[in-house]
Amino acid sequence: MKDNFSSQAEQYAGFRPHYPKALYDFIFSHVQNFDTALDVATGNGQAASVLADGFTKVYATDISKKQLDNAVQKSNIIYSIEAAEQFSFPDDSFDLITVAQAIHWFDFDKFYTEVKRTLNDDGLIVVIGYGLIRVNDEVNAIIDHFYKDVIGSYWDKERKHVDEEYRTIPFPFNEITSPNLFIEYEWTLDHFINYLGTWSAVQHFIKEHNSNPIGCEMLQSLQENWDPTEKKKVRFPLFIKAGRKAE
């Protein structure tokens, strides 16, 4: 599993979108027992913190100490530094295992081996991702040009799984039909630009060129279509894979 986010853990915690209540309502509606959950590649713990409101105990793992240092703290969340491909937990430990916006970085076979080992017979696995941010036609055109033409070659190869909305990743479980959901916010232009700065391809570009690809020309184009004092509705499409172990 790659670690693309330790260097920007505070920015990641401050500007990445959060998942809507409807997502957790869907997850909880299919959970049979609420004793113990595991959130893999938890990052700043945003999913783990919501799971902690429903579960007696939540374990949350990540390979980034800096991410965990910025994670939400609750008395029933136990954080640990662990890879997604090798759990330290006993067999049949969990009623729920989640992974949000991270599975595309994993070794699928090794991760799923650990899921099958540690998920109990009634347990549920839920894989969550979100796609490219959408605003309006004018801003979308700027986003798409930046995404594909400016930093397109700086995305890791695993990003294709996000572009394909996880349709092509393996999922060796009995799948449950998932709803069509979105993350929606009203953001200022400043918040939007800070969010773009959390993209791994932006960080790769900066590392290689020692300059920010979000340059003056792009900022001017954005300002022509987005008053800095105005909040615009932004939307991210969610994609969800949920399932249980095959009998």
What labels describe this entry?
247 residues, alpha/beta, Rossmann fold, eight-stranded mixed β-sheet, 10 helices, 8 strands, disordered N terminus
Report on this model:
It contains 10 helices and 8 strands. By secondary structure, the protein is of the alpha/beta class. It starts with 8 loop residues before the first helix and ends with a strand. It has a domain of 168 residues: Vaccinia Virus protein VP39 (Rossmann fold), CATH 3.40.50.150. Strand 2, helix 4 and strand 3 form a beta-alpha-beta unit. Strands 1, 2, 3, 4, 5, 6, 7 and 8 form an 8-stranded mixed beta sheet that branches.
Q: What is the CATH level 1 assignment of the domain at 6-134 and 156-184 and 235-244?
A: Alpha Beta
Radius of gyration: 18 Å
The helix content is: 25-40%
Given the structure, what is the number of helices? 10
Count the E strands: 8
Q: What is the H level of CATH, i.e. the homologous superfamily of the domain at 6-134 and 156-184 and 235-244? A: Vaccinia Virus protein VP39
Mean pLDDT over the full residue set: 92
Strand content: 15-25%
Order of helices and strands: HHEHEHEEHEHHEEHHHE
Question: Looking at CATH, which topology of the domain at 6-134 and 156-184 and 235-244 would you report?
Answer: Rossmann fold
Distance between the termini: 29 Å
- Globally, the shape reads elongated
